[in-house]
């Protein structure tokens, strides 16, 4: 949603489906759903408290209008497969409004067939179709491949628009009262979900907003969590680092499970864990860095002929990182299982057997180089973070075995290999000159991923403090932190990854530097956009958001930092 | 196997093949026709239940039409796979032009027609002539699926 009321990115029917509205990646032909005053206006936005229902207020010289936007939740009746409801209410005066829907199926690659069904404008392409139902919002008319109408909104007046989508089935043309009812139900659903969250720390409002973002990024049919709902929003304006994040990353799972448990959202945590174990069933003990939302592995990276966000090309869909070896994900899996188990949720016996096989596999492969957490494309290298996460995998495997959650038959081997990894890290991945653990074995560079070490329970004392200081000294710019300063095999620059800033907060809190962490957190919290969302990165000089948006990992890191600060301050008991 | 048994076997297998062809065509982006959804929403407005009920109804209809095919074969005194295919083609034309296009909207309580009251309740998009509203290739998909259905019945009856 843009501040001018336009829906510039909408993939239907699923997160990872081709876009129907893609103006954010090609303003000329991407397609959008515009709804705004016809004349000059100013707009302000907020989410209705405790919901993911967006309220935009347009103020013009002649009056003001309020618009509510929501993807409606199911009422289990005869409803559209997917539905975007847009409710318009006149607040004061009279405002000339207009709406315009220009559907561009298949990333603007398909020419839509436009027509009418039962007086409702409909556009279709292949097995996909959308209908745009409107009530008291003018007389809709097609103009080429766009449909829309002008209408006037007086104080107290109400209009309603609903974009109903279908894929592989006939459209359902919704009735007004049913859309209004679903919109009201959607508000209630979100308020009810938010009210059930248990976090009550200092950062409550911001954490709940992040939680709502996280919940919104969960693909309801499978329980998988998408890393971000967008593709190819650039890491630098005009740059080439444009990636598709509409997949579920193994790495994100333990952050998500941790956050969901902290928030008291056990069902979502269980859903995500079970989805993950199901998705990995065909490939275990080997794990992949990412999976499709349906658990599939067929992800082909390709370039679309679109102009790109502010001319940032290429526009990519798919993600070649799926084929990389990334050793840290094994630690993520075990940390996920450990956190889940620690939350007094017993693991399934089959899950225990799978985890035991994966632990054995980690013993076999931890000596290999990999592409690491940052998915570099010029590797592989012996990343310190990856080795630490292999240690995490075996450390948690031993702990889970001690709890009887998985067979302890190979526990001795896991303990032995964990000790070997630790010895390797302490000898090969430490630089006395830098006073820090290093990015890779044998080099003398800092890396923001090393901020994860204290969060994972690896290392103590001066070495961890030294590592945090080295990261701040070498990679920090203001309140923001670069991932690293090294060639990664991809041309072009990037901004500072916001999750690194929040990891810094967590790391500082973890080692007792609470005042420093709190001050940084306060400044970072003020960097969220007008409705409390964060993108993947930020330009440290301009403060402009970069990268895909909103990004789950950043919001997860925010929640983690808030909880770490509360805990460090002694007022945040773990659930 | 008796003609009755062949009809039931052919109807069952033929309906599986027909359903698979239509579903595969939808996955290939050729059509939005969903027979289970269309049939199931006659009896319930719950879209999840509708698909399950719709599949059952569709299979029952598949058996009924198979019996009608066998009746026709008995009437003319001969049966063959190509005769079944021909009947399937005729059924496809009838389905696309009359059965689904004209009759279904009349009996379907939740399908839009020119007589439906607007805005009172949700309505399913009507199929239109040759069911083109569900995609311009829908008739060809329907034709291919019904030819396969009829050929299977014809073949089983002729060897039965």
Structure characterization notes:
- The complex is a heterodimer of chains A (575) and B (160).
- Chain A is α+β, with helices and mostly antiparallel strands and 575 residues long.
- Chain A has a domain at 10-172.
- Chain A has 14 helices and 27 strands.
- The longest helix of chain A is centred in the N-terminal third of the chain and has 20 residues, at 176-195.
- With 160 residues, chain B is mostly helical.
- Chain B has one domain.
- Chain B has five helices and one strand.
- Chain B has helices at 3-27, 35-43, 47-76, 81-107, 138-159; one strand at 123-124.
- In chain B, helix 2 packs across helix 3 and helix 4 crosses helix 5.
- Chain A binds chain B through residues 76-81, 113, 117-119, 122, 124, 126-129, 131, 135, 166-178, and chain B through 26-34, 37-38, 41, 45-48, 50, 110, 112-113, 116, 118-127, 133-136.
- Strand 14 (172-173) of chain A pairs antiparallel with strand 1 of chain B, so a sheet runs across the interface.
Task: Describe the SSE topology.
The complex is a heterodimer of chains A (575) and B (160).
Chain A: E1 10-11, E2 19-21, E3 32-37, E4 42-47, E5 54-59, E6 63-71, E7 82-102, H1 105-108, E8 113-117, E9 120-125, E10 128-135, E11 141-143, E12 146-154, E13 158-167, E14 172-173, H2 176-195, H3 204-216, E15 218-219, E16 224-225, E17 248-249, H4 250-262, H5 266-279, E18 290-291, E19 302-304, E20 315-317, H6 328-342, H7 349-365, H8 384-402, H9 411-428, E21 430-431, E22 436-437, H10 452-455, H11 461-475, E23 476-477, E24 480-481, E25 496-497, H12 498-510, H13 514-525, E26 537-538, E27 545-546, H14 552-568
Helix pairs in contact in A: 3-14, 4-5, 4-6, 4-14, 6-8, 7-8, 8-9, 12-13, 12-14, 13-14
Chain B: H1 3-27, H2 35-43, H3 47-76, H4 81-107, E1 123-124, H5 138-159
């Amino acid at each position: 949603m843009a501040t001018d009321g336009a829906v510039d990115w909408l993939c239907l029917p699923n997160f990872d489906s081709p876009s129907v509205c893609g103006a954010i990646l090609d303003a000329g032909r991407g397609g959008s759903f515009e709804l705004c005053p016809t004349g000059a206006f100013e707009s302000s936005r907020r989410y209705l408290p405790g919901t993911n229902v967006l309220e935009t207020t347009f103020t013009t010289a002649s009056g003001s209008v309020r618009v509510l936007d929501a993807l409606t939740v199911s009422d289990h009746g005869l409803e559209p497969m997917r539905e975007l409801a847009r409710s318009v209410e006149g607040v004061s005066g009279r405002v000339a409004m207009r709406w315009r829907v220009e559907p561009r199926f298949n990333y603007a690659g398909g020419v839509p067939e436009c027509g009418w069904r039962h007086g409702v404008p409909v556009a279709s392409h292949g097995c996909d179709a959308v209908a745009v139902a409107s009530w008291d919002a003018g007389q809709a008319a097609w103009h080429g491949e766009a449909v829309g109408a002008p209408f006037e909104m007086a104080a107290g007046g109400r209009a309603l628009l609903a974009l109903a989508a279908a894929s592989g089935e006939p459209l359902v043309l919704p009735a007004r009262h049913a859309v209004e009812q679903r919109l009201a139900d959607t508000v209630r659903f979100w308020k009810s979900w938010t009210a059930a969250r248990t976090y009550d720390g200092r950062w409550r409002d911001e954490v709940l907003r992040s939680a709502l973002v996280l919940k919104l990024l969960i693909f309801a049919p499978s329980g998988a969590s998408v890393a971000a709902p967008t593709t190819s929003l650039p890491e630098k304006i005009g740059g080439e680092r444009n990636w598709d994040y509409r997949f579920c990353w193994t790495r994100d799972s333990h952050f998500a499970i941790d956050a969901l448990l902290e928030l008291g959202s056990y069902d979502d945590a269980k859903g995500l864990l079970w989805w993950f174990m199901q998705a990995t069933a065909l490939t275990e003990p080997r794990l992949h860095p990412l999976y499709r939302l349906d658990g599939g592995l067929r992800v082909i990276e390709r370039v679309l002929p679109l102009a790109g966000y502010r001319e940032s090309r290429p526009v990519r869909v798919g993600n070649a990182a799926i084929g990389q070896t990334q050793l840290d994900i094994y630690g993520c899996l075990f940390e996920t299982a450990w956190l889940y188990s620690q939350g007094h949720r017993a693991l399934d016996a089959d899950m225990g057997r799978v985890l035991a096989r994966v632990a054995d596999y980690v013993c076999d492969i931890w000596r290999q180089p990999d592409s690491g957490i940052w998915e570099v494309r010029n590797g592989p290298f012996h990343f310190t973070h990856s080795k630490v996460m292999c240690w995490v995998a075996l450390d948690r495997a031993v702990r889970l075995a001690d709890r009887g959650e998985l067979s302890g038959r190979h526990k001795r081997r896991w303990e032995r290999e964990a000790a070997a990894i630790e010895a390797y890290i302490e000898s090969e991945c430490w630089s006395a000159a830098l006073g820090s653990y290093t990015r890779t074995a044998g080099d003398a560079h800092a890396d923001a991923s090393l901020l994860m070490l204290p969060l994972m329970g690896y290392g103590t004392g001066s070495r961890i403090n030294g590592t945090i200081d080295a990261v701040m000294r070498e990679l920090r710019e203001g309140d923001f932190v670069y991932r690293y300063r090294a060639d990664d095999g991809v041309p072009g620059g990037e901004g500072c990854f916001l999750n690194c800033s929040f990891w810094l907060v967590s790391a500082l809190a973890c080692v007792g530097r609470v005042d420093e962490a709190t001050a940084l957190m306060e400044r970072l919290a003020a960097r969220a956009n007008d409705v409390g969302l964060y993108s993947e990165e930020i330009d440290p000089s301009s403060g402009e958001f970069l990268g895909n948006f909103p990004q789950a990992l950043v919001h997860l890191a925010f929640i983690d930092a808030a909880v770490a600060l509360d805990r460090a301050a002694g007022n945040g008991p773990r659930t | 196997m008796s003609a009755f048994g062949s009809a039931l076997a052919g109807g069952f297998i033929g309906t599986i093949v027909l359903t698979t062809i239509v579903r595969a065509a939808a996955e290939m982006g050729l059509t939005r026709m969903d027979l289970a959804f269309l049939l199931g929403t006659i009896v319930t407005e719950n879209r999840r239940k509708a698909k399950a009920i719709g599949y059952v109804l569709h299979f029952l209809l598949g058996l009924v039409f198979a019996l009608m095919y066998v009746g026709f074969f008995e009437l003319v005194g001969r049966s063959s796979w190509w005769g079944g295919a021909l009947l399937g083609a005729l059924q496809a034309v009838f389905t696309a032009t009359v059965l689904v296009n004209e009759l279904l909207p009349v009996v379907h309580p939740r399908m839009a027609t020119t007589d439906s009251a607007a805005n009172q309740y949700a309505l399913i998009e009507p199929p239109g002539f040759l069911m083109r509203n569900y995609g311009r290739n829908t008739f060809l998909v329907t034709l291919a699926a019904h030819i396969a259905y009829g050929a299977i019945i014809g073949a089983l009856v002729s060897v039965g």
